[in-house]
């Protein structure tokens, strides 16, 4: 199967509504409003959007008795065949009767739009919790492990009343677990990848009756793709669906939460054994995430059998150590940005490995797999890219450059976080990025910019290709006066030659302006994304020398005047970081073991 060609390497991760064209953004908002209106007309009150995923949008509202409901709509941009899966999801959800699973209410169809209705799980999903809290401690991970194991057991023991009919959820991950801190209630949501298991955990076929066994094509899989950042190898490569899939989801979830990552791929570099978990739990998680099928399965069996007795251990919360950020960041108290990350020079992170057997490309998750460039990238590189995406889930702007040379990794950075309460969690996210970078052994350069999508300037072209505007929009900037002594420290744009991943030819005058700007002490980035019908200019600028404010503004205005002469299509950008080679790190393949103490009382 041929991979789709990827043209632009400054790929923004999740399309922020602010980056859509005005037309698309309007359509999107209108559609959300129609959904809300429809639900209100059906008699539900206080309708609001509470979540979205690759497949759909989720709204919440109350029925006339005050009971909280959830309504899931499939994305209108997806193929009808994919949208129709919402009905399958409704069916699978209706089969499950478990206190940890929201009750199925109804599946309705308004014209082509299906709506899945179910009970609302109160609280927040664990991905959001993880983003706020950073690494989750031993006791909480252990409690969650026991609860998830009990759900797995329940799914395995599912029966139709007459015969055994184990169910696979197929997409267990932090964002599909909703947790209410006040009541400690936990729910497993999103049954869109759920199917009946075809084989049991030992690989033996399951058939609810003899006819099924006769008619089923024993070699084809009914498996659905779960989130490519969390599913195990068997599900990814299209094996027959089995309860092992969910063991993988559980292990990946526990690992991601304990390590403050948004995927499973970092496990070789930051193993569960390095996260301060009890040794037995850490080993079982690492085992379950192993590449070796036998190790994986026996760890899975061990987990299912022993987690309840492991959880009897005394695991008091240990005094929190203040973790220092491996690279510095600063705070801003202005309005929080809508952060988007663009990255470049990913090319070298690829490893030619087209052996991956891919399932149905007509799948939103797989589409994401392609777009995010994961199909021929090693696990550590995937984890690194995922850690960069995770940084953009924080209200932060700035830039990072990673330069892998001989024996060291050099990181230049400028990061500003707009919410001080997130400092500890952001520190964990930043430190993971550095640890993962330390484990990349190829030589090369990677850079990324985080900016506020709300500030992106968009100019549409008319039929002749000229940009339409009444008055030329201005590139804005913040002024922060830093010490005079700092101003003299060296700083520079990337002067490392042309980025092979960028194709946009910028007018010479634009480049000249950028170099003139470089003479003034500041930090920031500017990315020109030229599409056939419009130009997006993503940017953020912080002037660090207030005495140069007028000159800085004049140059930015000039830059805009020249930018409207862009005729080419593609992406190009510049980033300026305040100091050169801010930090040097040694390479490190794997973090060392660190377990929860055998005798926590001694530590307390
Ligand atoms: N019953 C529910 N109660 C409360 N919140 C819910 C419920 N169902 C979904 N959500 C919230 O909505 C989000 C998106 O829902 P869901 O995962 O079902 O959508 P999706 O499009 O299938 O997402 P994904 O891309 O993760 O597969 C969830 O992460 C969760 O926060």
Q: What multimeric state do the chains show?
A: single chain
Shape: globular
Describe the biggest sheet? 7 strands, mixed
Rg computed from alpha carbons, rounded to a whole number of angstroms: 25 Å
In percent, how helical is the residue content? 25-40%
List the uncertain runs: 1-14, 352-363
Q: Structural class given helices, strands, pairing?
A: alpha+beta
Measured distance between first and last alpha carbons: 57 Å
Count of domain modules: 3
Strand content: 15-25%
Hetero groups in this structure are: adenosine-5'-triphosphate
Number of strands: 23
Averaged pLDDT: 85
- What is the overall number of helices? 17
List its traits.
604 residues; alpha+beta; Phosphorylase Kinase, domain 1; Transferase(Phosphotransferase), domain 1; seven-stranded mixed sheet; six-stranded mixed sheet; 17 helices; 21% strand; binds adenosine-5'-triphosphate
Q: How would you sum up this structure, described in words?
A:
The protein has 604 residues and is α+β, with helices and mostly antiparallel strands. It has three domains: 42-119, Phosphorylase Kinase, domain 1, CATH 3.30.200.20; 124-215 and 222-310, Orthogonal Bundle (Transferase(Phosphotransferase), domain 1); 330-355 and 364-586, no CATH class. It contains 17 helices and 23 strands. It has helices at residues 22-41, 80-83, 85-94, 126-133, 138-156, 210-215, 233-236, 243-259, 279-288, 293-310, 364-371, 379-391, 423-438, 484-487, 508-517, 549-563, 600-603; strands at residues 45-52, 56-62, 68-74, 104-110, 113-119, 124-125, 167-168, 177-180, 185-188, 195-196, 330-331, 339-344, 396-405, 408-417, 444-452, 457-461, 467-468, 478-479, 492-493, 522-530, 534-543, 570-577, 583-586. A hairpin with a 5-residue loop joins strand 16 and strand 17. Helix 9 runs antiparallel to helix 10 (293-310). It starts with 21 loop residues before the first helix and ends with a helix. Residues 1-14 and 352-363 have low confidence and may be disordered. The structure holds adenosine-5'-triphosphate (ATP). Adenosine-5'-triphosphate binds next to strand 1, strand 2 and strand 3.
């Amino acid at each position: 199967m041929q991979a789709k060609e990827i043209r632009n390497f400054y790929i923004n991760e999740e399309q922020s509504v602010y980056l859509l064209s005005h037309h698309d953004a309007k359509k999107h908002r209108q559609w959300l409003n129609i959904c809300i209106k429809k639900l209100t007309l059906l008699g539900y009150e206080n309708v609001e959007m509470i979540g979205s995923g690759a497949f759909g949008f989720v709204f919440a509202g109350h029925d006339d008795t005050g009971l909280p409901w959830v309504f899931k709509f499939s994305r209108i941009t997806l193929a009808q065949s994919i949208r129709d899966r919402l009905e399958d999801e409704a069916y699978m959800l209706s089969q499950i009767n478990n206190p940890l699973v929201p009750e199925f209410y109804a599946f309705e169809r308004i014209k082509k739009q299906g709506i899945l209705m179910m009970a609302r799980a109160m609280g927040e999903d664990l991905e959001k919790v993880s983003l706020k809290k950073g690494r989750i401690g031993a006791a909480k991970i252990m409690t969650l492990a026991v609860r998830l194991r009990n759900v797995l057991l329940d799914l395995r023991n599912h029966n139709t009343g007459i015969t055994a009919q184990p169910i696979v959820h197929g997409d267990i991950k932090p964002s599909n677990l909703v947790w209410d801190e006040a009541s400690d209630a936990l729910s497993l949501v999103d049954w869109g990848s759920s199917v009946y298991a075809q084989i049991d955990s030992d690989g033996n076929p399951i058939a609810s009756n003899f006819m099924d066994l006769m008619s089923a094509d024993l070699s084809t899989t009914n498996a659905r793709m779960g989130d490519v950042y969390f599913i195990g190898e068997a599900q990814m490569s299209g094996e027959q669906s089995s309860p092992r899939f969910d063991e993988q989801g559980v292990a990946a979830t526990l690992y991601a939460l304990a390590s403050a990552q948004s995927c499973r791929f970092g496990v070789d570099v930051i193993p569960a054994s390095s996260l301060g978990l009890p040794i037995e739990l850490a080993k079982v998680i690492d085992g379950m995430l192993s590449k070796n099928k036998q190790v994986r399965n026996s760890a899975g069996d061990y987990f299912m059998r022993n987690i309840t007795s492991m959880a009897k251990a005394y695991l008091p919360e240990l005094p929190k150590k203040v973790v220092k950020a491996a690279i510095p960041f600063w705070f801003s108290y202005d309005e929080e940005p809508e952060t988007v990350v663009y990255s470049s020079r990913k090319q070298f992170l690829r490893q030619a490995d087209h052996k991956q057997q891919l399932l149905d490309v007509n799948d939103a998750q797989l589409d994401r797999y392609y777009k995010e460039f994961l199909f021929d990238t090693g696990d550590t590189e995937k984890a690194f890219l995922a850690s960069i995406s995770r940084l953009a889930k924080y209200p932060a702007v700035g830039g990072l450059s990673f330069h892998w040379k001989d024996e060291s990794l050099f990181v230049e950075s400028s990061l500003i976080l707009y919410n001080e309460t997130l400092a500890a969690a952001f520190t964990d996210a930043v430190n993971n990025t550095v640890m993962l970078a330390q484990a990349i052994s190829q030589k090369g350069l990677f850079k990324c910019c985080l900016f506020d999508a709300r500030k992106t300037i968009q100019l549409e072209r008319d039929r002749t290709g000229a940009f339409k505007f009444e008055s030329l929009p201005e590139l804005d900037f913040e002024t922060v006066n830093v010490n005079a002594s700092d101003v003299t420290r060296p700083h520079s744009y990337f002067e490392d030659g042309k980025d092979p991943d960028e194709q946009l030819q910028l007018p010479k005058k634009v480049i000249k302006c950028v170099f003139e700007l470089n003479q003034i002490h500041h930090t920031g980035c500017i990315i020109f994304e030229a599409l056939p019908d419009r130009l997006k200019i993503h940017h953020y600028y912080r002037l660090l020398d207030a005495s140069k404010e007028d000159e800085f503004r004049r140059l930015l205005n000039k830059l805009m005047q020249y930018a409207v002469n862009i005729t080419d299509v593609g992406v190009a950008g510049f980033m300026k970081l305040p100091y050169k080679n801010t930090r040097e790190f040694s390479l490190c393949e794997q973090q060392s073991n660190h377990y929860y103490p055998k005798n926590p009382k001694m530590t307390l």
